[in-house]
Amino acid sequence: xxxxxxxxxxxxxxxxxxxxxxxxxxxxxxxxxxxxxxxxxxxxxxxxxxxxxxxxxxxxxxxxxxxxxxxxxxxxxxxxxxxxxxxxxxxxxxxxxxxxxxxxxxxxxxxxxxxxxxxxxxxxxxxxxxxxxxxxxxxxxxxxxxxxxxxxxxxxxxxxxxx
Length: 163
Fold this sequence. Notes:
The chain is an all-alpha fold. It has one domain. It has helices spanning 6-15, 18-31, 35-46, 55-79, 86-109, 122-134, 140-157. The model has no long low-confidence stretch (mean pLDDT 90).
């Protein structure tokens, strides 16, 4: 499993856009979506690929996210702002980023299973991929957050080069 890969580069660059970060976090906090799954779905669209993760792979990645990444995040948030804990906070922040990188590497390994769609509409594919990540139970609030992400991406697209 290669931790350094095009998906990781895309994730770092895309997530660094303030409006994209805020929209992804709103989807994570308000709708329970994985930021890494969102970034993977967006990257796939840029590659002309439809988001489709089989149940076994989804479960493996979800377990990593829940048992490792989310646990580290909870610990980091627990010590945030506590007196004399800034060093521990920074260490946890670094470890959390490494766990997210490993999770994205797991997603990246699935790319070969997803065929490239010739002459696709990337904007439509991006939208469909985001709907696939959000699932069929996507509420009105989640759809609103997805629209906020879409708008943030359009704004950021002017700054970001294609991947």
